[in-house]
Amino acid sequence: MVEKSPSRPSTPPRALERDYTCLGCGYNLRGQPERGSCPECGLPVAKSRLGDLREQPAAYLRRVKLGLALVLTGYLCWLGALVAMLPFAAGMNLVNDNEWVAAIVCLLSGLVLAACVLWGLAGPSLGWWVATSRQPESASMLGRGLVERRAVRVLTPILACSVLVTIVSVVRDIAAGGRQGDLFIASGTVLSILWYLLVILGQRLLNQWAWSMAERHQLRIGRTTSQLLVAAPVLVVYSQIVEPLVRPWLPYPVVGVYLDVGAIVLLIVALACHVMCLREVQTIVKHAHHDAAQREGRGDHHA
Ligand SMILES: [Zn+2]
Fold this sequence. Notes:
The protein is built from eight helices and no strands. By secondary structure, the chain is mainly α. The protein folds into two domains: 15-50, no CATH class; 51-287, no CATH class. It is globular. Bound molecules: zinc ion. Zinc ion binds at residues 22, 24-25, 27, 38, 40-41, 43.
């Protein structure tokens, strides 16, 4: 009799043979069945294992390494943009006095500024796209993989489109005499929201990579950074939109200034923590890649 059952061949459930931190609650999953769930919070064991970089092939880890490096170059460009802003603004103030030196300073710093802003947007988008390429094992372990990974894959092409629309609108506005048009304001707003969303999703991926390495220290930093990244725009929106509306009824109207400053400081701290987490995960990926390359090198040698 021919076996017609379409079900997969049943293998006995294997238990995890080393420490895995549950991504949901931090419970140590050692000894739990591979396809089971966390006994504390019910999160599938496979989801916590997916974030573990110790078992990934070297080719995949190389892509993650390259991706994270691209993300970091983008963030450094934002720092460069802030620096280039100073001579650009100073040059703009003097350029009306027909100062040719001011015009040259303005032009050069303007070019640097534009390049930094462009790569500040393109670098992280491209980097997250590369770093979130499909994990070789994910299909067999957990359907289509981590939800954040898929969200980043959807977000980055949309972000690229909004960057293009913003560039077109800037060129159009300059050609029309330099006034900011509605298209620029709309696409610029969409762009900043998407970009920030990408930072938050990227941080969640960093958390999963770092948490699964059973590092309590990284677990704490990652969670705090996620909270800061969400809290910062909430405070910005409150200080810019809600506070001006309720200001007439506030007993101390000056509080709005503190909120504005607080929102900016919180935003800078949140992004600095995000970069710090990125650097830590870069180190983890570097070590995992080194180990995987050695492991695979040995394998090839024996084969
Ligand atoms: Zn759990």
